[in-house]
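Inputs:
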Amino acid sequence: MTTRFASVDELLRQLDEGTLTSTELTESCLSLIRDHDSQTNAFLRSDADAALQQAAAVDADRKAGRPVGPLAGIPVALKDVLCTKGTPTTCGSRMLENFVPPYDATVVRRLRDAGCVFVGKTNMDEFAMGSSNENSAFGPVRNPWNLQCSPGGSSGGSAVAVAAGYSPLAVGSDTGGSIRQPASFCGVVGMKPTYGRVSRYGLVAYASSLDQIGPFAGDVRGAARLLQAMAGHDPADSTSVDQPVPDFLAEIDQPFSSLTIGSVPEYYIEGLDDDVREATEKAIDVFRSLGATVRDVSLPHARYAVATYYVIGPAEASSNLARYDGIHYGHRADDFENMIDLYAASRGEAFGAEVKRRIMIGTYTLSAGYYDAYYLKALKVRRLIRQDFDAAFGEVDLIVGPVVPTPAFGIGELINDPLAMYLSDYYTIPLNLAGLPGISIPAGQAASGLPIGLQLIGPAFEEARLLRAARMFETATDWHSLRPAFAQ
Amino acid sequence: MTQNYTIEYTVIIGLDVHLQLLTKSKLFCGCANLFNPDHPNVQTCPVCLGLPGALPVMNRHAVELSVKTGLALNCDISSFSKWDRKQYYYPDLPKAYQISQFDLPLNHDGWVDIVTDPESGETRRIRILRAHLEEDAGKNLHDETGRGRDRRVDLNRCGTPLLEIVTEPDLRSAAEAKSLLEELRLLLTDLEVSDCNMQEGSLRCDANVNLHVHTDDGHSIPTPIVEIKNLNSFRAVEAAIEFEVARQAEQFAKTGKKLGDVPKETRGWDDGRKATFGQRGKEEASDYRYFPDPDLVPVIVSQELQDELRATLCESPGDRRRRFMAAYELSHYDASVIVGQGKDFAEYFEAVARDCQDGKLAANWVTQDVLRESHERHVTIDKFPVRAEVLGSLLSQIQKERITTKSGREVFQQLLEDAEAGTAVTPDRVESIIAERGLEIVNDSDQVLSVIDAVLARNAKIVEDVRGGKAAAAGPLIGQVMKELKGADPKTVRELILSRITEG
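Outputs:
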């Protein structure tokens, strides 16, 4: 049988029964990447030898009856923003093209401990800045549903790794929709956990107060398993929250007998694509048919979220990326006159246009005389956005709505229109600002054949509730079983 | 007020003092906090190297030492403070920002009393604006111009906890600035907060200096403020400020430029030339773009922690000086000298004073003999071979007039020689030296007179001379008597000899 697109549950069952070895599974993934990824460009690096070694070790453990981790032998693709000891971690940038971290990110270490096999590092928008994956220094990723379309970003490579069936699981990071938007564009499950749920140690920072690592999978249970392996307090990350992690799988298959979901009238904006609107409404009907009560909730400040994000995100980015100065590691210009020139030339040469744009915005908004008007004001609006959600979750268990206003757009379509591109994150950004968990699940198909996602939003640390509701929807629908023609 | 270049002015000085804290590990990572210039870049990890993805975790102990210092400096302690990023590019700063505290420092609004005149014991209160915690940068080696390609950076120091104490501009002379540093060094080494070693850079000081020039109509004009950096000894602080005061007075007399006419200037100190010099390129106003560090959570200092830390404070140097003056009847000067040597020395003095029951006698000995001998041996008081109980026992013999001061010094020298020879230096040894050398004062006048008579008999020629009016000729006679009567008081012996000769 083919393991491509098999669920993680199914793969684990076969591995445990001995009808499949991790080596076979890993070889299959590696050959798919080798044979097909030249068309999609999802992987920046795939180290077959290292992956097969990991797989063989797991196989040996299983064979010998030694205890193995909860994801033993399961291939996982890692977004190239996660530090992997001894393996280059480029962040999609010329700046770090040759940077080899001397340490593993906490998440990478936890996944190693869980028995995962790392099949490769995935392509991304440079330093996770972008919504189309066109900002990668190593070429855009292409959407397997339509190779002329963007897979979304910034975790486009990880979304495609799962959508094209290269890998059953992938890890991404989400600062302003960077997991959920590509999940929606590629028809897979993608989740941003609560801020603080997953350690950021070893995640190369874009915007520290917004960044969060999360899972991609072909189904909700797979995402739950991957999140389970990554979540939990880490003493090395002061912002990771010391809260017990529930068993996400424990009740995931029990539908809620009573569930109140919120629908947000402010979401139905002018730029919302008709197919997306229809899919969202139908999805809400599905929940209704499953016994959920639907109630309107207001998020009056949601429309300021994109503007707020583009003050806070770049401000933090301008600071986080200042360390790439050509002195200690990373790209250094060949020709420079003096120290200042060394900084300017190295950064000027190695950063792409979007990264430079955000560094300049951030530097400006933190400058003396502008700090109060921009940064401080943005923090205040951020608080209002959070309060909107707090009020809403006083009335409903979950909020349901679109992930992105449109299905995947064409490569090159928005790249010269940054403002239009930024609006692609209209529905996802508020969660990052509020620190809330959100999941994108397949929930429809546009007339063009492109997938459409549905976003479920929950209160902080209620990932279990989100996953259970998402699973409830998934069980009642078939959208998650659709496959791109590319994969046939 | 000082007279110079025919203008009158008041000197205005504020200090920024940076102290490296005595924690085991660095401020935001587990690397060792040690001065280690011979092995560059060995005390580093992804966090203090500022590698992509690494995150800081606050060292609780550094906060505790900072709060302890704040309490000792009579500061208000912030129950809520936070971390901010101070952003600038420099090769010794691998993250291109320093984690510091901007608008909510851990400690603020304190004071410290400094001794402005050791003779009279006069003190003045210097206000502390703030004392905040931050991470130290690394160290650029060789030239810092960035020209060429072969510059080196040592990041061992990167991330060392640094407490920055900022005073109000309350200091009025170079001597007061030095006095403040001395007071801080005493206080903070006593508290074991920092070893305050300027050579190794664990105490560093920048001085902000300007003058308020007095006009005939009773107003005053401030001269431009100059920040002097790279001051790496107490002497340099004093000399640099003195130089800068004279330079600013001269400049004002020449140009009349006042505060605001020119941007704040940063000047370095050239210890060889004994002059400050303008540091090019640093005159532009810096915009550090401070903002709260999103990688760290706010610092909460509870009342319980404050109380706990307050209980660990020891007596301040000022309190100790006052107590010594009252309890041991010391002069301001002696109290200052003793307390100025640090807590261990003060405790040594107290033990000696207790044992010999005479504070003044103990003060004389420790400030002269003990200080001189320990300096000569380059040892601190805890390594000084004559322990307090031994000196106390020796001084009590002097105090009881059992031996003379001169004999006391002889015993003291012998004890030091014993120590060098490896003999145990104990109070018993004091007794045995007195006995061996017959140093006990002889009060039996018959015995004294019989020795004198014997000596006079042997020296008829000298006796004649003395009788003839040359009293000074009696010297050798006194010497001979003393040689036989070690414990005798030379003054008494001299009087007895003279009267014996005149009588005869």
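Remarks. Residues 317-437 of chain B form one domain. Residues 234-255 of chain B form the longest helix (22 residues).
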